[in-house]
Amino acid sequence: MWANLPRILTLVVRGFVLTLAVLTAVVVIRTVTFPSYQTSPPECKTTDPDFIPADEERLARFTSAIQFQTVSYERGVGTPQELAKFVRFIQKSFPTVHSSPMVRRDVVGNYSLLYRVEGSDASLQPYMLASHLDVVPITEEANWEAPPFSGQLKDGYIYGRGTIDAKHSLMGSLEALEFLLSRRHQPKRTLYLAFGHDEETGGHFGAKVIGDVLTQRGEKIAFILDEGSPVGDGLAPGVSKLLALVSVAEKGFLQLRLEVNEEGGHASMPRSESAIGILSKAISKLEDNPHPNMFGTGPEARMMEYVATEMTLPYRILASNLWLFSPLVAWVYSRKPQTNAFARTTTALTRFNAGVKDNVISPEAVAVIDHRIHPMSSVEEVMEFDRKVINDPRVKLNVINNRPPSPTSPYGKDSPTYMMLQETIQQIYPDALVTPTFMVANTDTRHYLNLSSAIYRFNPYVMTPSDLPRFHGVNERISVQNYERVMNFYYHLIVNMDKPLELKRHGHEDEL
Ligand SMILES: CCCCCCCCCCCCCCCC(=O)N[C@@H](Cc1ccccc1)C(=O)O
Ligand SMILES: [Zn+2]
Ligand SMILES: [Zn+2]
Question: Which residues does UniProt mark as catalytic (predicted)?
Answer without folding.
Answer: 134, 199
